[in-house]
Amino acid sequence: MTSLDERSAQTVPERGVRIGHREIFTDTASPVVNPYDGVLVGRVANASAGAAAEAVELAYRTLDQQIPAHIRAAILDRIAELILERKPVLANLICAEVAKPIGSARAEVDRAADTFRLAAAVARTHTGRGVAMDATAAGVGKIGFTRQMPIGVVTAIAPFNFPLNLVAHKLAPAFAVGCPVVLKPAPQAPLTSFVLADICADAGMPEGYLSVVPGDPGEISAVIVEDPRVAAISFTGSAAVGWHIAGAGSRKKVLLELGNASPAIIESDADLEQAADKLVPNAFGFAGQTCVSVQRIYVNDAVAGDLRALLTERMSRLGVGDPADEQVLCGPVIDDKARHRITTAIGQAESAGAVVRAGGGVRPDGILEPTLLTDVGPACDLIREEIFGPVLSLVRVGSFDEAIALSNDSKYGLQAGVFTSDMSKALAATERLKFGSVLINETPAFRADNMPYGGIRESGNTKEGPESTARELTTERLCVLNL
């Protein structure tokens, strides 16, 4: 095996700061390293505040160069085609940058293509409405209608865990309604954003609609967040950072998609085999590094032992290891800092009386084993905080009401799942669970890219999905004609 220094000397992608279709290189660059084996994946330049300001200025000027909706739609459709044509390159890059298992990386590429297709439909249909002016005497003799106008320049700040599709969810609907985007990609996974930017240019996206400015937040945040030419900020990531940005970006539209401590309720009448089949891959896939990964299960005491046995059996067959292996579903967490945070939380839970029933250790290759705990107290971080790792807490409850109450006892409110064969309980759950989405006989990790996805409380303040985002990124203009 070559040393890190030797690997660093090998040819790797070098990307700059992309201002429209122009790429510039700065005095400093940051390495992008595979979290699994430490191999250097590439290097990306660090944007200066001046370069970020140049990107914002270009985007702001682009607002005066609107192109017709049918052309925007055609470009979005072409982007989707090119994404699928370059699927092997994109999937392998996602796998290398963030150690996402290769099968999951391919699925993300497919989803990103869907997201652009859905946005193309938005471009063709997102329009205004007629206003019945003669509904009052003052409006007689007038015709009223509304037009949906682009809100302006959008800053997009993306997370590492979906470096292609979550960028697509910010870029595609913005372009559909005519908003240029200045993108700050995740520092762990900037290369995927550059490949997507190449695709957008190849598909015909005009100069100025997308710039990519990687770099130190301390250097560029004041520009991309606080610049008065930025009209909207779209952020996906941690709650602490998201709400800080919301405060710094006052008087702007701030769209936040934040964290969760996702609960799943398992009733005694549930199909336990189905529940286990869904819960295990959705708790431990990609090492639990999605904001809706299953984190806490509230299971009726009558079937708790049976469910635990089913979960541990399926965990024993879970593919764990090198994310480039086709059989692997769970690889490493993103870095050593994350692994330390998660193992510390497990240790604290054990000290408070929790019992590790499976996993709990760190393998020789550095991968944190998928971990199942029982007897986890309600005050533990494994219950209260977003763990963002391959850890699942199984909590016994005596009733449906108790499960609902414990699920709601959280500062988060993104998605929750319920497994039951009782329709009355299912409907009651949709009424009583205080979350942005409630899924019946499905895990809280489920997401289709056209659905309105988003939470309440600390989980965010908006709904994402091309149609939902397009509404957020447009303003309604009333037009009145006096006849």
TrEMBL record:
SUPFAM superfamilies: ALDH-like (SSF53720). Belongs to the aldehyde dehydrogenase family. The keyword Protein biosynthesis does not apply. Residues 460-471 have a biased composition (Basic and acidic residues). Residues 30-474 form the Aldehyde dehydrogenase domain. Residues 451-471 are annotated as: Disordered. InterPro entries: Ald_DH/histidinol_DH (IPR016161), Ald_DH_C (IPR016163), Ald_DH_N (IPR016162), Aldehyde_DH_dom (IPR015590), ALDH-related_metabolic_enz (IPR051020). It comes from Nocardia carnea. It holds the Pfam family Aldedh. Keywords: Oxidoreductase. The lineage of its organism: Bacteria, Bacillati, Actinomycetota, Actinomycetes, Mycobacteriales. This is Aldehyde dehydrogenase family protein. The keyword Hydrolase does not apply.
